[in-house]
Amino acid sequence: MFVISGLLFSFTSAAAADVLQSGPNSTAQLTSGNLVLPGYWYLLMAALALLVPAGLILISVAGLEPQRAWDAALGSLAAISVTGIAYWAVGFGLQFGGIGLVYTRPELLLLVWEWSPFSPDWGVGWGMAGLSGWFLSGAGVSSLVYALFLAHLPWAMTAATLPVLALRGRAPATASAIVALLVGGILYPLAGNWVQGGGWLASLGSNVNLGHGLVDFGGAGTVYLLAGAFGLAALVVWPAPRRRNVDFAEEMPPT
Asked: What is the pTM of this model?
């Protein structure tokens, strides 16, 4: 399962890099639909990547009783639905709202706002959070922007699915929804911005000469590190319920 997910991470990242770094001809093909090889490749990888959170849910509920498995599966599906809405509304903007400052392409003119605690004199490589692209709305939304959204939506869902599954049976359903909303709408987008959205971690090489900066090809490291750390913190907050020892009265033998 994790080998397959790693391959999907790599393929999706390779498609993203190909579309971002290719020339204007390939972008026109992606937009107009003449050749559409990069676009079809992107959509295929995004569709296959959606199997990762679905597979994690199936693995998690496989050993449960039928009724508990049904409840856990429905709760997990509801959680990833909340994650998708949160990522569409605010998460994508936080992650890629300033990527147009790093990749100077006309299709990314909408995504050129990035918050940084430092002065603009320090350069554009110290971004902490994107500030544009909310709800994927605006006249400047291009097919490349939609491609970025579809490529990273499954990984936002994966990052939220793991803590939700870890809290199954410990936290109430409302808490699981809040966890999915928090991870998909804020935490994963911020971490993704630092690593893949033109943020400060990826720019450490150009800013302070630390090699190539943080390189997370495919984004799997960001997803699983964030999900594991948040899941561990959530397990500390919601420990496993203690089982009560019930003493049954001994039955008298029949006379």
From this structure: 0.82
Contact 4, 48 (CB under 8 A): no
Taking alpha carbons only, the member of 250, 218, 236 closest to residue 4 is: 218
Split at pLDDT 50, 70, 90, the class of 85 is very high
The set of residues, in sequence order, having a beta carbon less than 8 Å from that of 122 and lying 6+ positions away, is: 116, 207
Q: Extract the tokens encoding 59.
A: 């693995």
Task: Report the C-alpha gap between 5 and 53 in whole angstroms.
Answer: 9
3-state secondary structure labels for all residues of 139-160: CCCCHHHHHHHHHHHHHHHHHH
Tokens found for residue 233: 């913190």
Res 219: pLDDT: 85
Per-residue pLDDT tens digits for 216-252 = 887 889 999 999 999 999 999 888 776 665 555 566 6
Length in residues, the chain: 255
Q: Render pLDDT for 99-147 as a digit per residue (tens, 0 to 9).
A: 999 888 888 888 999 999 988 888 778 999 999 999 998 777 888 899 8
The per-residue pLDDT for 20 is 58
Of 121, 122, 103, nearest to 208 by C-alpha is: 122
